[in-house]
Design brief:
The protein is of the alpha+beta class and 299 residues long. It contains five helices and 17 strands. The protein has helices at 28-37, 100-109, 126-130, 156-164, 198-206, and strands at 9-14, 42-44, 55-56, 61-63, 65-70, 79-84, 113-116, 137-142, 171-174, 188-193, 210-213, 218-223, 226-241, 250-262, 269-275, 281-283, 287-288. The longest helix has 10 residues, at 28-37. The chain is globular.
Length: 299
Amino acid sequence: MIFDRPGFCWFKGNLHTHTTRSDGRKTPEQAIACYKEHGYDFLALTDHWRWSGADEAGGMTVLSGVEYDVGSDPASGIFHLVAIGAAHDPGLTRERGPGAQQIIDAIHKAGGLAILAHPAWSLNTPEQIRRLKRLDALEIYNSVSGLPHNARPDASLIVDQLACAGWTVPCLASDDSHFYDGEETTSFTWVQSKSRAPDDLLEAIRQGRLYASQGPRISFWRENGHLEIRCTPARAIVVYSDAVWSAHRVLTGASLTEGRYELNANDHVVRIEIIDELNRRAWTSPYPVQRLVSKEASR
């Protein structure tokens, strides 16, 4: 569930960023300045196979990060894995040819979180992803995987297929900044944390206290047999679930700021998507219905 809790704040960040240390067009200093200028609270520099340590950039937290990739055939699986928050370099090299699970295990051994990057762009199938153990999160949206450079940015369908099979994981939105010609500062993650200190942010991500967005804000909770949804002005509120048919899952109108979804017996897992007048979206992670509670019960 997503709503304000006493003692916690919402922090905005990007967890997938490239610089001139690999194939990005901005230096680390320029990338940090770019995101700081746009009001971000935290950032991870995740260059390919090159680890960057944690830092503090004048009011913005820079988490440690690196991106690994494995595989070349979509049929057998191409996996890009982003490591954030590791206490030290996981020590992986392309030459040693680690597999996807070896990469995840090495990230955890170094104290970091393992995020599956752009599964739609990589043509990952739910079956391939489910073979990966102990993934901490995945990107439901990846900016650079969309136009004009690519065309498969949105992994919502994959997230829903995984959820229908009982596999739920926190969902992020990231820019995967390379070109800095429009994809930067576009898609981000709101994290509900005690502070923007690295340990607090990482713990919040582990616990799934977050949602993905391109601008819209969202909150929701369960009240008896329905979901109460609040958001910034939107043209559509959509509740996705494992029920193939629901006559009331889509609410449309002008400047919507609230909605209600009546849960039915066929809803076992739900997630919410908000679309505003500028076609910007926000996405929650999928949640098992049986674990949804009211605001009061969670405090």
